[in-house]
Amino acid sequence: MSTGPTQDGPLDEAHWSQEYPACAGKRQSPINLQARKIRYVRLRKGLLLTGYQAQDRKFNMTNVGHTVMISLPSSMHMVVPDGTKYIAKQMHFHWGGASSEMSGSEHTIEGIRYVTEMHIVHYNSKYNSFDEAQYAPDGLAVLAALIEVDDYAENTYFSNFISHLEDVRYPGQTTVLKTLDLEDILPPNLHDHYSYKGSMSSPPCTENVYWFVLAESVKLSKAQVLKLENSLLDGRNNTLQDNYRHTQPLNDRVVEANFNNRPSRRRAN
């Protein structure tokens, strides 16, 4: 998750806490999701997403130096099972690419790192703005979707986004998406999810994020993932790759899941 200062990459993770003490806290993100450490809870309500359907308007898409970020309108919001309403602020991606194997998700499942991870950042509606909420103890919530490769099919819902990556090759460059359909970008099953209390996964690492990690993954073609991994440059004029933080200790936190069985890593038919 990226909301704050530009990170220089995973190699500098060990030094984050020197400037941002919260990065050495006990409730950091991301984490490894393990079945033996998950508590099953039966929820009558899932996540209620409003305004995520296709919208024809201007969505700014920017290379912020450590990821590509798409600004979202306040008409998009998420109500979580406890009834709290969170307003959408932005979405961004984490990916790999620097090694021979494509893997760059932040959260892992049973130690398995997925190809890419998408974060939709929201802030608590009790606050007047994101700026007010971002440091509040209950200020933020992130909806995360893990992405894996389907060798055969291009995900057409991502085509518009992927085709505009070349327009934001350099940090600071912004382009405009004229339409965005988050409902179709996300997996069909929005009910089954993991949830836990954690942090921003990049500096300043504030421990005020309610995480919701969808159980069902999104499928992209290998060509689409390669495009994401190789299109952007960072502030040092290097190809922007491996922009994910490694998993952090769970410590005494509880991870909940509202489904019984673990999701399988399966290919689309």
TrEMBL record:
Q: Which residues form a coiled coil?
A: none
Query: What are the UniProt keywords, alphabetically?
Result: Disulfide bond, Glycoprotein, Lyase, Metal-binding, Secreted, Zinc
Recorded hits in Gene3D superfamilies, A to Z, give:
Alpha carbonic anhydrase (3.10.200.10)
Top enzyme class: lyase
**Which cofactor names does the annotation list?**
Zn(2+)
Q: Where in the cell is it found?
A: Secreted
Lyase found in the keyword field? yes
Top-level taxon in the UniProt lineage: Eukaryota
Report the EC code(s) recorded for this entry: 4.2.1.1
| PROSITE patterns attached to this UniProt entry | ALPHA_CA_1 (PS00162), ALPHA_CA_2 (PS51144)
Q: Which GO terms describe its molecular function?
A: carbonate dehydratase activity; zinc ion binding
Q: Which reaction does it catalyse?
A: hydrogencarbonate + H(+) = CO2 + H2O
Does the UniProt entry include the keyword Metal-binding?
yes
| A cellular-component GO term for this protein | extracellular space
According to the entry, every stretch annotated as the Alpha-carbonic anhydrase domain falls at 1-259
Identify its protein family: Belongs to the alpha-carbonic anhydrase family.
Q: What does this protein do?
A: Reversible hydration of carbon dioxide. Its role in saliva is unknown.
This protein is called Carbonic anhydrase
The record lists the organism as Rousettus aegyptiacus (Egyptian fruit bat)
